[in-house]
Amino acid sequence: MATPRIPGTDPDVVELPCGEEVPVPHFDLGMRDFDCACGERHGVVMDIHPPSRFFPPEVIEVLESMIEPADGTEFGTHHLLGLVIEEFPKQVVDANVAANGRIGCQYIWVSQFDSRRLHHVIVELVVELMDHAMSHSDDDSAKADFATSLDAFDVDAFVDRYRDERDLDYPA
Ligand SMILES: [Zn+2]
């Protein structure tokens, strides 16, 4: 008979948004999508994946200057995933797998949707964030420039192009 345990407390198991429980060693550092027993393909992100997985360096620079993390840490991937969790609390899980030590990262995030959709969601949220920050700016010409580039910005096209251009294998 299996020993009863409290869900979410086993450091060797990640409980996915769909309810499946997956042993930590089933994930590896190069994984971006997890083909789940539930039939879905879930997006996977780890804290060692740099923010450049989602954005080019010039965007990351803007984000670094714009976002002052309350926890005093440098802007990073976990802040991006924090935005997603805020927006979709039931569709993304985060798990601290440091105690397991098998895959070489501390945090892992798994989304109900796949990694392409996750990338799309992250880009949309960051654009919103920039738009919001810009609306508080006193610089009218910068505001106008931003509004113009925002109108021309196609999230789908950006995500497709970025994913084509980047070598998506980690660690590099
Ligand atoms: Zn699943």
Spatial order of strands in the largest sheet: 3-4-6-5
Unreliable stretches covering 5 or more consecutive residues: none
- How many helices does DSSP assign? 5
The number of E-state strands comes to 6
Number of domains: 1
Element order: H for helix, E for strand: EEEEHHEEHHH
Strand content: 5-15%
Report, as a whole number of angstroms, the end-to-end distance: 44 Å
The multimeric state of the shown protein is single chain
Q: What is the helix content? A: 25-40%
Estimated radius of gyration: 18 Å
Characterize the overall form. elongated
Q: Give the biggest beta sheet.
A: 4 strands, antiparallel
Structural class: alpha+beta
The overall pLDDT, averaged over residues, is 87
Bound molecules: zinc ion
Brief digest:
By secondary structure, this protein is of the alpha+beta class. It has helices spanning 57-66, 77-87, 115-135, 140-152, 155-165; strands spanning 13-15, 21-23, 33-35, 41-46, 92-96, 107-111.
What does this structure look like?
The protein is α+β, with helices and mostly antiparallel strands. It has one domain (13-165). The chain is 38% helix and 15% strand. The protein has helices at residues 57-66, 77-87, 115-135, 140-152, 155-165, and strands at residues 13-15, 21-23, 33-35, 41-46, 92-96, 107-111. The strands form 2 sheets. Strands 3-4-6-5 form a 4-stranded antiparallel β-sheet, with helices on one face. A two-stranded antiparallel sheet has the order 1-2. α3 packs across α5. 19% of the residues are buried. The structure holds zinc ion. Zinc ion binds at residues 16, 18, 20, 36, 38, 40, 42.
